[in-house]
Amino acid sequence: MNVKSDADHTFVRRMEQLVEMAGGRGQLAAKSGLSRSVIDKYLQGASEPSRPRLVALAGAGPVSVAWLATGKGEMSAEPRAADDDGAHELDKWLFSRVIDGIRRTYEKVGGRLQTVNEVELGLEMYHRIVAVAETQDEQRGALLMALDQLERELLEKGRRAASGKQSA
């Protein structure tokens, strides 16, 4: 029983560090897409996150999923240094899914995105995912969370634009 208590306590300590890195509980909630009450439960040790929520929390840091879950490995999820020649090999499977997901998300909300902006957004999202997720399953989860966040942002932007048009 003590082992679980120690594990719970160390997860809470890692969550406290994550909250500090994110700029507070409200900021972590906003960045991760989770509610403030869920964040509070994790900080109290009353609950532990599911895998998709763990990925969302880690991405909000950004810290590595492995570190947040276990305390092992590197804390930072900053992209690793390039090879000596400065080149990174792009994971074509992941990048194609990122671009496809962005296109589908924009179609779903009725938005349009220029190709150059699509590629820039795709590369940004790709690098964030690679920074926090190591396995293909983790990458899928991180991609789904990133696309959900993108959809929420686009819908909110649309609502703000619509309310601006009505008041003018």
UniProtKB/TrEMBL annotation:
Report the SUPFAM superfamilies cross-referenced here: lambda repressor-like DNA-binding domains
- Gene3D superfamilies tied to this protein: lambda repressor-like DNA-binding domains
- Give the matching InterPro entries: Cro/C1-type_HTH, Lambda_DNA-bd_dom_sf
Q: Which PROSITE patterns match?
A: HTH_CROC1 (PS50943)
Q: Which stretches make up the HTH cro/C1-type domain?
A: 27-68
Domain of life here?
Answer: Bacteria
Pfam families per the UniProt record, alphabetical? HTH_3 (PF01381)
Annotated CDD domains: HTH_XRE
Under the GO molecular function aspect, what terms does this record hold? DNA binding
| Protein name listed in UniProt | HTH cro/C1-type domain-containing protein
Q: Which organism is it from?
A: Devosia elaeis
